[in-house]
Amino acid sequence: xxxxxxxxxxxxxxxxxxxxxxxxxxxxxxxxxxxxxxxxxxxxxxxxxxxxxxxxxxxxxxxxxxxxxxxxxxxxxxxxxxxxxxxxxxxxxxxxxxxxxxxxxxxxxxxxxxxxxxxxxxxxxxxxxxxxxxxxxxxxxxxxxxxxxxxxxxxxxxxxxxxxxxxxxxxxxxxxxxxxxxxxxxxxxxxxxxxxxxxxxxxxxxxxxxxxxxxxxxxxxxxxxxxxxxxxxxxxxxxxxxxxxxxxxxxxxxxxxxxxxxxxxxxxxxxxxxxxxxxxxxxxxxxxxxxxxxxxxxxx
Length: 300
Prior knowledge:
By secondary structure, the chain is α/β, with parallel strands linked by helices. The chain has a single domain, classed as 3-Layer(aba) Sandwich (Rossmann fold). Helices cover 51% and strands 7% of the residues. It contains 16 helices and five strands. It has helices at residues 16-25, 57-69, 74-81, 86-96, 103-108, 111-115, 132-141, 154-168, 179-186, 189-195, 197-205, 218-223, 225-235, 257-260, 265-285, 290-297; strands at 6-8, 29-30, 119-123, 146-151, 213-217. Strands 2-3-1-4-5 form a five-stranded parallel sheet. Helix 2 (57-69) crosses helix 3 (74-81) and helix 15 (265-285) packs across helix 16 (290-297). The protein starts with 5 loop residues before the first strand and ends with a helix.
């Protein structure tokens, strides 16, 4: 059985948490009760999904599953209350707890839901920057896989990324962080790779046909979340008519006061200069990227 049916691969800081919560509520879909399994970038390489300097991924997911099952956290309580297929979530927890990291183990998360006729998938924004070798493995798992990719103004995406990793992670206000720290972060591999949409698309489209990759704009999500979701549901071949019924449709997840702060002019200029070459390429293909380019070319 070639499962899952779809992956949302990012990009990071582009509304993936909100999209995950919306997809979880559709009765024709099943996604695991925890977002970001990180199978293809970490878990398949070790039993605990250990990454340098970070808590093992498997431990993180098991902790979240415990919070869901014991009603310990408001976010997870809400996720449990609105779960459309709670027994599938329980089954996932049992399978996930096994000492395994094989592809068969990963695919088995989705089998029971598939047997009920549900479309299955998961959301892990880190997949957007996978190397081509890993994308080929995903293709061999399911060549008919549908892929969702949400793109955001790369300057705003990078700023949001910095707010999360520099400010929120260490409970600091942006004013407390010196300019060099931000600039070093903007030029780090972690930040650059996640805003390099052109390279990301080149890798994924060299393996999967374009008609299997649904590329949409974060601006469209923010302007009209209902229409945005209807397009996603049509792409996933499930009923788009239930969109208006979804809880939290107009509530963005992972928003924070820090993220909402404007980018200081000098940092904005540095980010614009960094991303203009990629934006010029992106705007040739996607009309939604043209306003991004226009905005920063005027300041070039």
